[in-house]
From TrEMBL:
The lineage of its organism: Bacteria, Bacillati, Actinomycetota, Actinomycetes, Pseudonocardiales. It comes from the Bacteria. InterPro entries: Glutamate_decarboxylase, PyrdxlP-dep_de-COase, PyrdxlP-dep_Trfase, PyrdxlP-dep_Trfase_major. This is Glutamate decarboxylase. It is an enzyme of class 4 (lyase). GO terms for molecular function: aromatic-L-amino-acid decarboxylase activity; glutamate decarboxylase activity; pyridoxal phosphate binding. Keywords: Decarboxylase, Lyase, Pyridoxal phosphate. Its EC number is 4.1.1.15. The modification N6-(pyridoxal phosphate)lysine is found at K261. Its cofactor is pyridoxal 5'-phosphate. Pfam families: Pyridoxal_deC. GO terms for cellular component: cytosol. One of its GO terms (biological process) is L-glutamate catabolic process.
């Protein structure tokens, strides 16, 4: 890719070439490659993009495998039966990681956690409609203040009220009491997050489930829990074995995670698993017989490359449990070290200290301005987002650093030095 990065920046299409929308004539493949690479030059180097949770580097062997299967359509099950078996094997493996019964879990590969969340939401909605036999008309979904936008999308597009718990100072997470207080007969489910996009912290899933058990016993309101483990789903099983957040909790009916985050697959893969067939609304299945087989599909989207699923399987066999543990333990340890170093400047408060997701979330002590700091870091090649928290806390600005497998001890030094350089100029 280095050769491509040096390619000359040339205008690909001038307006005279665009009479028919695309250039009238093509060019050599080499010339096209260089021209496109030239257009894409600049911006942050992916491993210095500390804003993203997504995978930014993979091994050369994984790249070869990815290229080899890029043109395979995941939905062509009849044509690529081995691919379909690989996907099912991934579901069984993930089911076991999440402490389910791997013979009973069912699941779907999706384009990411957002599609998985939409699908999980539809399953909760249809199951609630079936339970209440259509007698209730105002469904709601309960979640914490730090819930990802995909849950708001689900609520808006499927006509479900988003019941969002208020954030408290220093804590965005939903807790058991707040969750149970918000539930009523119209509640289709409670979303627990492992962990939050905004501060990297886990919500107490076992406590939430226990409060919902109490609600069921006392008022007969039986609410299922879905765990949005977009990032934590491939971290907690390796680093937090004693934490009960998964299918060990009977009330947890389904879990999603992003293969393309801590599953270490390039962009384009999420997973949604239900504890068993009975928890996946049959309404989700669409029968398709025009591809050669006669099969039921449980996804919202359709055609897409099989390569991310191939890479997920590759990662499981390549790294094994010990390898995933080692990679994520290293990221967590680097995140912890970074948090301690930044706290040591005396100019920040920690909202997330890297001990759950390997994420450092900081608020600044006055007069430090995080947006200025972000600009200073950008000049040194680091991309870090600054944002405000949900409405109740929207006066709090936060800077977030996501530590991934390609972060290094040198990066901790380099990043901390850049931050120290900035804070030393602010009195
Ligand atoms: C908690 C949580 N849920 C859902 C998502 C959406 O995931 P994806 O980007 O895989 O669609 C994210 C993304 O960061 C997330 O952090």
């Amino acid at each position: 890719m280095a050769a491509l990065a040096n390619a000359a920046e040339e205008p690909l299409c001038s307006s005279t070439h665009l009479r028919r929308g695309i250039p009238d004539f093509g060019m050599d493949a080499d010339a096209a490659l260089n021209a496109v690479a030239g257009r894409l030059r600049g911006g942050c180097r992916p491993e210095r993009n500390l804003a993203t949770f997504l995978t930014t580097s993979i091994e050369p062997e994984a790249q070869r495998l990815y290229r080899a299967y890029l043109n395979y359509n995941l939905v062509d099950r009849e044509q690529y039966p081995a691919m379909d078996e690989l996907l099912r094997e991934c579901v069984r493996m993930i089911g076991a990681l999440w402490q389910g019964d791997s013979r009973r879990v069912v699941g779907s590969a999706t384009t990411g956690s957002s599609e998985a969340a939409l699908l999980a939401g539809v399953s909760l909605l249809r199951s609630w409609q079936e339970r209440t036999r259509g007698e209730l008309s105002r469904p709601n979904l309960v979640m914490g203040a730090g819930a990802h936008a995909c849950w708001k999308k689900f609520c808006r597009h499927w006509g479900v009220e988003a019941r969002i718990a208020s954030a408290r100072a220093g804590r965005l997470a939903l807790d058991g009491t707040a969750a149970a207080d918000l539930c009523d007969e119209g509640t289709i489910g409670v979303i627990g997050i492992l962990g939050s996009t905004l501060d990297g912290r886990y919500e107490p899933i076992a406590e939430i489930a226990a409060e919902l058990d109490r609600l069921d016993q006392q008022r007969g309101i039986d609410v299922p829990v879905h765990v949005d483990a977009a990032s934590g789903g491939f971290i907690a099983p390796f680093l937090d074995a004693d934490l009960r957040w998964d299918f060990r909790i009977p009330r947890v009916v389904s879990i999603n995670a992003s293969g393309h985050k801590s599953g270490m697959v390039p962009p384009g893969l999420g997973w949604l698993l239900w504890r068993d067939r009975g928890r996946r609304s049959p309404e989700l299945g669409i029968r398709i017989n025009y591809l050669g087989g006669d099969d039921t599909h449980y996804e919202l989207s359709f055609s897409r490359s099989a390569a991310p699923v191939v890479l997920q399987y590759y990662n499981f066999v390549r790294f094994g449990f010990a390898g995933f543990h080692a990679v994520h333990a290293r990221s967590r340890s680097l995140a912890r070290e970074l948090a301690v170093r930044l706290l040591g400047t005396g100019r920040f408060r920690l909202l997330g200290d890297g001990s759950e997701l390997p994420v450092v979330a900081l608020a600044a002590e006055p007069p430090i301005k995080l947006r200025r700091l972000a600009m200073h870091l950008a000049d040194r090649g680091w991309a870090v987002p600054v944002y405000t928290l949900p409405p109740e806390l929207d006066d709090v600005e936060v800077m977030r650093v996501v530590v991934r497998s390609d972060f290094t001890p040198e990066a901790v030094e380099d990043f901390t030095a850049a931050v120290e350089e900035f804070v030393s100029t602010v009195n």
